[in-house]
Design a protein that fits this description.
Blueprint: E1 5-12, E2 15-26, E3 29-39, H1 43-77
Antiparallel strand pairs: 1-2, 2-3
Length: about 80
């Protein structure tokens, strides 16, 4: 399992732009996805970045909890 996400700025023609990266599973493989958010100085873009990072980690935490429960149940059954 590969968990992670973050932000980075990319400067194009002297202007900084914000991108959100995260990992996704596609056809059983993990890949890094990069998504353009907008101008780095924009309050709306920063708010969207916060929303996306929070949503990603909430989803990852829920998936990790699901895997934990399933693994512990298997162990308890003697598998």
């Amino acid at each position: 399992m590969q968990i992670g996400c973050g932000l980075y700025e990319h400067v194009v023609r002297g202007r900084p732009y914000l991108y959100f990266w995260h990992y996704e599973t596609e056809k059983g493989r993990r890949r890094q996805v990069k998504e353009y958010l907008g101008p780095a100085g924009s309050e709306e873009v920063r708010a969207e970045a916060i929303r996306r990072v929070d949503a990603y980690y909430r989803k990852a935490a829920a998936e990790l909890q699901r895997l934990r429960k399933a693994t512990l149940a298997e162990i308890a059954r003697g598998r």
